[in-house]
Amino acid sequence: MLASGSDDHDIRLWEHAGDGAGWKHAFCLRGHAASVRCVTAVCTNILASGSDDKLVRLWDLASQSCCRVLAGHTGAVRCMCMSPQDGWLMTAGRDKAIRVWDWSAGECRAVLGGHVNTVRSVGMLGPGLLGSGSGGKNLRVWSLKQGLTVKALHGHTSWVLCQCSLSHIGMFVTGSRDGTVRIWSQNQLHPGTNQTHSPPMDLDERSRSESIDLQVPTAGEAEMESVLDLSLIHISEPTRLLSISYAVFCLKKKKNTNNNTNER
pLDDT by residue for the chain (264 residues), tens digit each? Predict the structure, then answer.
């Protein structure tokens, strides 16, 4: 199933018809009192959502009802992710803090502080390592075991708004308000490695590189504003031995003279 959140405060679940009819609306989850900013799957039948109402809600998809409310954030919840190794749920947002939850017990295990702006993205970069993006132009790397920042990856020139993992090929991707997508090697996470961004190079050279810079193609560089979101799509074809992975991004264009905003 596919889940989506909206400014209408609702979470909608969609399922694929399987008969060529595409996706259809299955049911709606209601309970948040403000815009739903993020959703993620916690386990097979449990969905988590974060909202401008400062709450994280857990939903039982079988009963189509809210089964737990996680309270603690003092600002809008803008992003969340799951740690597949230990089952922790990480949430963050406008209060500049990252909360680590034992979602099954409904308890906050740790609060990671240090950001000075809204936290726009969180994502697992490797076992026990969390990445977080904010207005500091770098990606903070956290050790969940220590509860500390262990590294900062530099390269973006504006807010880091989104990220996704390409762990099966040893990489992860970040998108920024500077209009670029950067592909990083997980070797960057190892102690003692260079923290700065490397020059652009071919993907085939990834085993020898630290990171790759993808300039977003637009009609003109002046139109570029920010990469809003990233997601990972795996596509398998019978004629290929390996699946193909695409990091998909959404680019927001600057306002034109008529003050209209377009999204690509």
Answer: 899 999 999 999 999 877 777 888 999 999 999 999 999 999 989 999 999 999 999 999 999 999 999 999 999 999 999 998 888 999 999 999 999 999 999 999 999 998 999 999 999 988 889 999 988 788 999 999 999 999 888 888 888 888 888 877 888 888 888 888 888 888 877 655 554 443 333 333 333 334 445 554 443 444 445 555 555 443 333 444 443 444 454 555 555 545 544 433
Distance of CA 112 to the CA centre of its chain: 17
Each residue of 140-151: b (16+ CB within 10 Å) or e? Answer: bbbebeeeebeb
Query: Other CB atoms closer than 10 Å to residue 246's CB: what's the count?
Result: 11
Strand, helix or coil for residue 129: strand
Residue 140: closest CA among 178, 109, 113 = 113
3-state secondary structure of 67: strand
Residues 151, 181: Cα–Cα separation, whole Å: 20
